């Protein structure tokens, strides 16, 4: 998997929030970035998240990553970068665990990205409705 910029921005919104608060809105994040001196709008963030803004500034991407407590390289590195892929899979696992209602998990050792991806797929399969009897 080589996550596009849009997929990486989307996973930040979808994975990095508390279950009680829910996913932050683009309006909320845009206001937070403006408070830090980065000019942007909710429409700008929506376009990046949808993949329709082809050239967001490096400053905006760095501020967006930092808003979600992620390193700037997560949004600036190539989608083929191994550290980007690994981080994306970790965030997707976090999102999948939350959606499955898991409160705590302890993974032993150093699971590979493929192990995390297999866990995500297993969680998704459990959430899908089964065939009607």
Written account of the structure:
By secondary structure, the chain is an all-alpha fold. The chain has one domain: 434 Repressor (Amino-terminal Domain) (Orthogonal Bundle). The protein has 7 helices and no strands. The chain has helices at residues 5-15, 26-35, 42-50, 58-67, 73-76, 82-99, 113-127. α1 (5-15) runs parallel beside α6, α2 packs across α3 (42-50) and α6 packs parallel to α7. The model has no long low-confidence stretch (mean pLDDT 86).
What is the compact description of this entry?
InterPro entries: Lambda_DNA-bd_dom_sf (IPR010982). The chain is mostly helical and 133 residues long.
CATH structural fold name: 434 Repressor (Amino-terminal Domain)
Q: Please tell me what the overall shape is.
A: globular
CATH architecture: Orthogonal Bundle
**In sequence order, what are the helices and strands, one letter per element?**
HHHHHHH
InterPro entries: Lambda_DNA-bd_dom_sf (IPR010982)
GO molecular function: DNA binding
């Amino acid at each position: 998997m080589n996550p596009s910029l849009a997929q990486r921005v989307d996973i930040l919104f979808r994975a990095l929030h508390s279950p009680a608060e829910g996913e932050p809105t683009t309006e909320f994040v845009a206001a937070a970035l403006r408070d830090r001196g980065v000019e942007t709008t909710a429409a700008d963030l929506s376009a990046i998240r949808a993949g329709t803004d082809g050239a967001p500034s490096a400053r905006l991407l760095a501020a967006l990553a930092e808003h979600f407590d992620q390193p700037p390289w997560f949004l600036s590195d190539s989608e083929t970068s191994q550290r980007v892929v690994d981080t994306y899979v970790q965030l997707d696992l976090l999102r999948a665990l939350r959606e499955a209602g898991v409160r705590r998990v302890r993974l032993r050792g150093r699971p590979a990205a493929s192990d995390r991806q297999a866990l995500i797929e297993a969680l998704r399969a459990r959430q899908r409705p089964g065939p009607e009897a």
